[in-house]
């Protein structure tokens, strides 16, 4: 069994940190593992499998001898360095949005479309965090009953905006508890670092993730719409999304309404979810059992509950879907792609 040399790009970020933890227990036969980041972070040290390793500066030659490169350092970094990694023989799993809608790049959730990995040309894209967990929940339903329409509203954790946004939320919370006037709170990041205005998230809900784009939808909402259709390889499915940032540290929640092609009962769908790969059924209203963001943190599964029929639409079903956005929504799905490729013999 040939050992694999791995590079983690963006090793100091929220997702990169999770990638490193997951690599420690990965089924991949690891050889050398190197951690890459900006010049500013180069020289810092971190622990991997009980040993201290030094973070290296990211340069094109960093990928010499690397078999697998896990990227999570921003779209601009991926655009510049992912082709360099491929040129030097590495397979890239990219956690940014840069390559997702490229027709030459597979967009993969391993429980949903692993066969798409066979068509890779060096780069595989990891979908949006909110798209991933929704796909895990919907794919078994689509396979059994067909799918005509999806309307999703997300309740997204601040960790999806990065470490600085998490720290800003903590400070705003302290300011609130100290009864400091809201107009004196520091708000420099959310709802979107690239937009002109910024608002506090503490004790608030911001119906904007990323900048606004066509038809009044944000880029985050368009990502969910377009990625869902690409992963399912079906442009006929009607998809609409509203993405909201809430003051939760980690764990994205989603209210998902679907319309199926064939009628299904609640019991039918519960049975499908209970046996679906990667999905965990938590659905017993009589005992107040349902998925919660707080309980999802640190877990790889996608939790599904509050399954109920729409009172006015025979083929309409509502679900509540929760997952750790830094794990299944990012780091774990990326590593899972790599492990699936290895099992399929695609590194040979």
What's the short story on this structure?
By secondary structure, the chain is an alpha/beta fold.
Describe this structure in words.
One of its GO terms (molecular function) is aspartate-semialdehyde dehydrogenase activity. Residues 5-120 form the Semialdehyde dehydrogenase NAD-binding domain. Its EC number is 1.2.1.11. Catalyzes the NADPH-dependent formation of L-aspartate-semialdehyde (L-ASA) by the reductive dephosphorylation of L-aspartyl-4-phosphate. Helix content is 29%, strand content 22%. With 348 residues, it is α/β, with parallel strands linked by helices. The chain has helices at 14-24, 75-87, 129-145, 163-177, 219-232, 266-275, 293-296, 327-343; strands at residues 4-9, 30-37, 45-48, 51-54, 56-57, 68-71, 91-94, 123-125, 149-156, 238-245, 252-259, 279-281, 302-309, 316-323. It has eight helices and 14 strands. The strands form three sheets. It has a six-stranded parallel β-sheet, with helices on both faces. It has a six-stranded mixed β-sheet with strand order 10-9-11-14-13-12. It has a two-stranded antiparallel sheet with strand order 3-4.
């Amino acid at each position: 069994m040939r050992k694999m040399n791995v590079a983690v790009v963006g090793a100091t970020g929220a997702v990169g940190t999770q990638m490193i933890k997951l690599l420690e227990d990965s089924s991949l036969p690891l050889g050398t593992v190197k951690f890459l980041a900006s010049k500013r972070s180069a020289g810092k040290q971190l622990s991997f499998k009980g040993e201290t390793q030094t973070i290296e500066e990211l340069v094109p030659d960093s990928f010499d001898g690397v078999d697998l490169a896990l990227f999570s350092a921003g779209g601009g970094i991926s655009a510049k360095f992912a082709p360099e990694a491929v040129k030097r023989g590495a397979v890239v799993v990219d956690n940014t949005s840069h390559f997702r809608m490229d027709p030459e790049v597979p967009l993969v959730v391993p429980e949903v479309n692993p066969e798409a990995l066979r068509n890779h040309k060096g780069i595989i894209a990891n979908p949006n965090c909110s798209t991933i967990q929704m796909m895990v929940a919907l794919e078994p339903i689509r396979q059994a009953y067909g799918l005509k329409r999806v309307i999703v509203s997300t309740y997204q954790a601040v960790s999806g905006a990065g470490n600085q946004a998490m720290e800003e939320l903590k400070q705003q919370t302290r300011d609130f508890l100290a009864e400091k006037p809201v107009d004196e709170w520091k708000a420099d990041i959310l709802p979107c670092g690239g937009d002109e205005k910024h608002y506090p998230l503490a004790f608030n809900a911001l119906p904007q993730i990323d900048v606004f784009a066509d038809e009044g939808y944000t880029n985050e909402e368009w990502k969910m719409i377009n990625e869902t259709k690409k992963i399912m390889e079906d442009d006929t499915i009607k998809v609409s999304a509203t993405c909201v940032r809430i003051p939760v540290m980690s764990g994205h929640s989603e209210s998902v309404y679907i319309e199926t092609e064939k009628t299904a009962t609640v019991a039918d769908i519960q049975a499908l979810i209970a046996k679906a790969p990667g999905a965990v059924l938590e659905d017993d209203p009589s005992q107040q059992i349902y998925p919660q963001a707080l309980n999802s943190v640190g877990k790889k599964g996608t939790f599904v509950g509050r399954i109920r029929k729409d009172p006015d639409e025979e083929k309409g079903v509502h679900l509540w879907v929760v997952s750790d956005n830094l794990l299944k929504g990012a780091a774990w799905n990326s590593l899972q792609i790599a492990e699936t490729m290895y099992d399929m013999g695609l590194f040979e």
